[in-house]
Amino acid sequence: MNGLAANVRNHQRVYDTSNVINISKIHLSQQQLKVISKGLKFVPTPTSINTITTVVNCEKSLFSTSKLIKSAAISEISTFIQKWRKPTKFNMNKEEVKLLKEIKTIEDIVIVQADKGGKIVVMNKNDYFNKIEEKLNDLNVYEQVKKDPTTIIKTEINKKVTKMLNQNKITDQNKYYLTSIDDLPKIRGQPKLHKIDTPMRIVTCSRDTITSPISQFIFRIIKELRTTLNGVVCNTSKFVKIISDVKLNQDEHLASLDIQDLYTNIPVSKAIDITLKRLDESKKLDNLPFTKTDIKELLNLALKNSYFQFNGKFYKQKTGLPMGNTLSPILADIYMDEYQKQHLHEVNIPNKIWRYVDDILIITKMNKPQLEKYVYDLNKIRGTIKFTSEFEQNDQINYLDTMLTKTIINNEIILKVRWFRKDTAADRLLNYESSHGKSIKNNIVKNMTARILETTQDNKDQQEDLNKLRDMLLRSNYPLREIEKLIKQTCQEFKSNKNKNKSNDKNDDTAGQIKDKNNNDFICSLTLPYAPGMEVLKRRLEKKLKIKLFFSYPYKLQSQFNQSLKVPSKSVIYQIPCSCKQTYVGQTKVGIDNRMKQHSKTINDNENNSNSEM
């Protein structure tokens, strides 16, 4: 029994604040650090249900369903809200709530996630701004723009979308969706604790921003092009299945190539041209109302308007694919697939090369000096794609979250696979005491266990890796009995599924995986802010009405810290009283002023067919 588990069994609660790194000038007490150490995803127990958000989400998600289903769903939700009672148990005591309020009032610090390892970093606000602006001052990648570019972008989008509507290529509903958001992307920083002077990695937040509807619209058209890519790794499970069947020659070695700053170095125009060529070859457009010109113009709108805002200023990413855009991963994959064919002849051999985003694994006859010379020559090729390399050590290399070791069995060289976590990886998961749904916490244990069982092949190694998982879960306040029950259950399910697959002689990607028991067809999905007890509502909606219910968690600690960093959004929920003593609750993503103008126009024009309820 390890020390951590022993303490738990002896009912000795260990408060571990090692996941919080304070590099600010402000001294934080041990008690304050304990509150922060709960994790940025920790959700305090809700004391009320956000009725307005619930109503708006219902209206939006159930818009296209039949009146019968919509009425039944709203009835179920209303009944739940009426019967719901404030919890009697809370996951933060009065002292912790007081400490949280104290932390929120400290204006000179920011509390953010580290770039690697899941650590929480407390740093001076000025340092945070300065380090991000230091990155933005790289004139090869970014430029500051003088004016808010929103109006220009919106005009371009409206022009193209209106043209497609007039050509009967899209519907009015499509047009509304594609022009529905006015917010620009925002950026935030994640400190690189593992590097000297703690530089910042910039993360772009593009969800629900001005070009995201177009990006999602195009993604649905081109996503099938992934099937044209060679050696692209989708996930660890499939990679392990493939790599486990690989046999090496005696003179072959393991190595990896890492593409430096992939997204910002992809030439956008070339990536678009390659995508259009493959789309044309796939005959996908034959069954769609769009021309290649339509797709090209939409791709340009989505990928070349790479503006964002930070600290009251507006910037543009000058080169490469926009960070955070839905389209960037698939465009990068398509471009690199073509790049491999043109420039990586020596290593681009089927079943000898695999790539996950910017990380390439190769099996090569080159020794270490030859590989280094090869990469040196590669980096002299005209263009922006540059590589670094890593060569096997002691017949071993780490790739993604696996450790690969060359092993001789029955006179054949195969690759032994084991679950791998970097030294910088997080040592804890979602805090068990967080007010998340129980199924989420259970699935964390089951999915992590299944990952180890799928990846680590040796039984002794499996037990060691499961013990590492136990330690992570204990640090995250999971009860030991719950951990053991879920791990045992997952192991039994995994073994049962594996035996079934063997007996049925199935050769698919599902061998040994834990199956989803609730794989039903749903007529629509709905997202509501979580409150304790909502699992009952979830079961009723899904079983009775076939409406898939997801939960959102808007009150995580990360949303409560750093209030001064938040940029006002044009996405708001609003309420308008009427002279009939009723109220209208609505949601807009174009700003409240523009939305009021839309309502006024609807009323003045008396549009009987309008979706507006005003």
UniProtKB/TrEMBL annotation:
<feature type="region of interest" description="Disordered">
    <location>
        <begin position="495"/>
        <end position="514"/>
    </location>
</feature>
<dbReference type="Pfam" id="PF26215">
    <property type="entry name" value="HTH_animal"/>
</dbReference>
<protein>
    <recommendedName>
        <fullName>Reverse transcriptase domain-containing protein</fullName>
    </recommendedName>
</protein>
<dbReference type="InterPro" id="IPR043502">
    <property type="entry name" value="DNA/RNA_pol_sf"/>
</dbReference>
<feature type="coiled-coil region">
    <location>
        <begin position="445"/>
        <end position="472"/>
    </location>
</feature>
<dbReference type="Pfam" id="PF00078">
    <property type="entry name" value="RVT_1"/>
</dbReference>
<feature type="compositionally biased region" description="Basic and acidic residues">
    <location>
        <begin position="502"/>
        <end position="514"/>
    </location>
</feature>
<dbReference type="InterPro" id="IPR000477">
    <property type="entry name" value="RT_dom"/>
</dbReference>
<dbReference type="InterPro" id="IPR058912">
    <property type="entry name" value="HTH_animal"/>
</dbReference>
<feature type="domain" description="Reverse transcriptase">
    <location>
        <begin position="184"/>
        <end position="408"/>
    </location>
</feature>
<keyword id="KW-0175">Coiled coil</keyword>
